[in-house]
Amino acid sequence: MHPFRKHLEEIISxxxxxxxxxxxxxxxxxxxxxxxILQEGEIAQxxxxxxxxxxxxxxxxxxxxxxxxxxxxxxxxITDYDSFTNRAPSTISIDCIEDSELLxxxxxxxxxxxxxxxxxxxFWAKKGKLGRIxxxxxxxxxxxxxxxxxxxxxxxxxxxxxxxxxxxLIAAYLGVSRETxxxxxx
Length: 186
Fold this sequence. Notes:
This protein has nine helices and eight strands. It is α+β, with helices and mostly antiparallel strands. The protein folds into two domains: 1-107, Jelly Rolls, CATH 2.60.120.10; 125-180, no CATH class. It starts with a helix and ends with a helix.
């Protein structure tokens, strides 16, 4: 079974014809390590589903410190949702940590597909809810957990991430210095 179909069918059931129709609204692309898929200030034209690879969404503060909002790995979705939805300049950048293979849908095709196929409207509604829950968990963790607790939770939830992402990037995601991360890791 196509991995994208398997992903969709975690939420909605599809016939072969329906899957082919959905897939016809997506494009396939490959990106190299360190290649941007979105730069701050651009309007996000595409929403990406990660076939394979690893990406990060991030911004730099006024002191030049990198803050990572999200990592994206296989079967995850990534874009600047504010920019993609509201057609506003992006406040984040997204680039590839590894060579990556992606499926993407443009804003126009997503709107069209949602109107033409209510199953996809339900799919994105459910994915949106799950994304808001994950964001709520992340914010609560940042506000109430110690650095050590955040590190242990990330390690428990995504052990493979630690094999794929540098300690510097893990530190930027957790909101700690590289030195603090080294102490947490010992």
